[in-house]
Amino acid sequence: MILVKLNEANFEYDIYSLIKAFYPRENIIIDVDFKKEALPEEISFRLVIEYSDNLIKLMELNDGVVDLNEGNEYSYVDSIETEYSDRVETKNQLKLLLYKYLSKKTRKTLPWGTLTGIRPTKVPLKMLEERYSGDEIYGFMRDTYQISQTKAALSYGIALAEHELLMNVCEKIGHHKSAKDTSTADLCEDAYSLYIGIPFCPSTCLYCSFTSYPISIYKEMADEYVEALLKEIDFVGANLADKKLTTIYMGGGTPTSLEPHQLEKIFNRIEEVLDTSNVLEFTVEAGRPDSITEEKLLVLRRHGVSRISINPQTMNDKTLKLIGRHHSVADIRSSFELARSLGFDDINMDLILGLPGEDGADIAYTFAEIAKMKPDNLTVHSLALKRSARLNIQWSDYEDMLMENSEECMEMAHKAAKGMGMKPYYLYRQKNMAGNLENVGFATPGKEGLYNILIMEEKQTIMALGAGTSCKYVSEGGATVTRSENVKDVKLYIERIDEMIDRKREKLEEMGWL
Ligand code: SF4
Questions:
Q1: What is the pLDDT of residues 326-368, one digit of tens each?
Q2: Which residues contact 297 (CB under 8 A, 6 or more apart)?
């Protein structure tokens, strides 16, 4: 256990995340309490962070009792001057102070330095829109966040790619730009994207933390679920008719767990009540090969789905079995070939690095096999250990297995994607990722997933429909982002559909769209 005492509640989550990045397996307690107290035996070390006037002081306590009023002995003391009126700057300074201490103590540096948030491209993208030069952005990322040369180059390169794609979206939806206008803040003004969640899968993967229920058990409820979804689609159609629908993304779960007639019903309703004339991209995650049939893919084709995902995660049969996916590598290949033969020319494949029992050779094999199939997009995830996932709950069954991701593995991913003619175009991080690394989306030019950028960079309102989904309402050029959530439980979602719609209505009224 690592104990951190604060003299006031401030930046607790940032402090926690940074310490966790250095000590992923330690329990960390952040405590705003300066009272004298005996410390538990198993404590690894104790820190005190004191905010006062224009100073933040960091101290590591020697063994004994925490009582700041009675002259404790410190084995480490450092401080940093800060201007509290600027909260972002204060947070950056505090994290820098803590990072230097932890780095010295562990003799480690973190590839992403003090950046513990999920969007490492947020700052460079904003700076690009404000017309800072490449050198300035690059330098700022390294000096402010201590990120490695490689990651600074990666986040800057991806921000550049994102910016170009977002500028194209602006043009395509009629926000014409002059040479001087490099801002994409207007994307949220009169346009939105749609997310439809289908919370069913053929089986539950070991690492899954999404809203997903086995379709075999929920089959009877699927028709009612679709009816509830149609109500939400009707609500969007009736209320956002004056807004431009830019992208549609159907995810989950695995949407292709539904029957062809159920998918058809949803697509028909979209076409009936929404204006799809501005839609630039329509993605459906056909993620699991064990959910894909020719009939379903033909339904997708008939309704203008432009992009699908067929997600192997790994090309090793032994791992597929271990992670609870009831399909084989041969099924991945045949589903992919089937989709290609039916005319899908934009297929994404998701992979996970750091799966239980996989070493560098297994990962290299996966990349070699993927390269033979030639997908158009590749999304490479670092395994994230989520609290609700079976992998976490049954941790003792897997803790002895190799579960590492490393810079070398990410490097392998970049080389493999480059070999397939792809470039990185989007990037995000999650909590508790293997190797403290990142998720990167690669694409062949022209096949980038626009929805991914719009949601990740919070550029547009996302109307999210379905159980367990969360709407993001983006306004004031991205300065304000609020959310409304739908209940996760399928039965409750069906029963309380009117309430889910009311939640949306309320938020849309708040932002002045109704
Ligand atoms: S396919 Fe995705 S959503 Fe479905 S169980 Fe596996 S990880 Fe979860």
A1: 899 999 999 999 999 999 999 999 999 988 889 999 999 999 9
A2: 286, 308, 338, 339, 342, 344
Question: What residue owns the CA closest to ligand 1's atom 5?
Answer: 204
Distance 319 CA to ligand 1 centre (A): 15
Q: Are 42 and 67 in contact (CB under 8 A)?
A: no
**pLDDT greater than 90 at residue 33:** no
Predicted confidence at residue 450, as pLDDT, reads 98
501 lines ligand 1 (CB under 6 A): no
Residue whose CB lies within 8 A of the most ligand 1 atoms, among 200, 203, 212, 322, for a mutation test: 212
Q: Which of 73-77, 165-169, 370-374 has the lowest mean pLDDT?
A: 73-77
CA–CA gap between residue 377 and residue 307 (Å, rounded)? 10
183 Cβ inside 6 Å of ligand 1? no
- Record the tokens describing residue 44, joined without a space: 């690894």
Burial environment of residue 506 by CB neighbours within 10 A (0 to 12, 13 to 18, 19 or more): exposed
Which distant-in-sequence residues (6+ apart) come within 8 Å of 232 by Cβ?
465, 466, 497, 500, 501, 504
